[in-house]
Amino acid sequence: MDFLKKISPGLLGWLTGLVLPFVTLFLLIEYMVDGNALDTIPVLYAYDDLGIWITLAVLPNLFFFWWWIQKKNTQAAQSVLGATIFWAILSLLLKFGA
Prior knowledge:
Blueprint: H1 2-6, H2 9-32, H3 37-46, H4 50-57, H5 60-70, H6 74-96
Helix pairs in contact: 2-3, 2-4, 2-6, 4-6, 5-6
């Protein structure tokens, strides 16, 4: 746990906000869709459904956002919010982009 104390709160928020939705997306697809997750992601992209799954995968960021606000760690909360905005832009690009 000493390693986590050495990381700045902003970096910890960004890492949490970017890695947690990726892992959640992988687990959601693995257990909710028939087949392997790595094989299913290109199929979801082809059917323009990957943006919807990304949106669902970002929901755990809400927990960490509120948790860090309650801990009075606003820098980490801002970083999670920034990562969530990144995921939202990516989701919009996948849904409506070229």
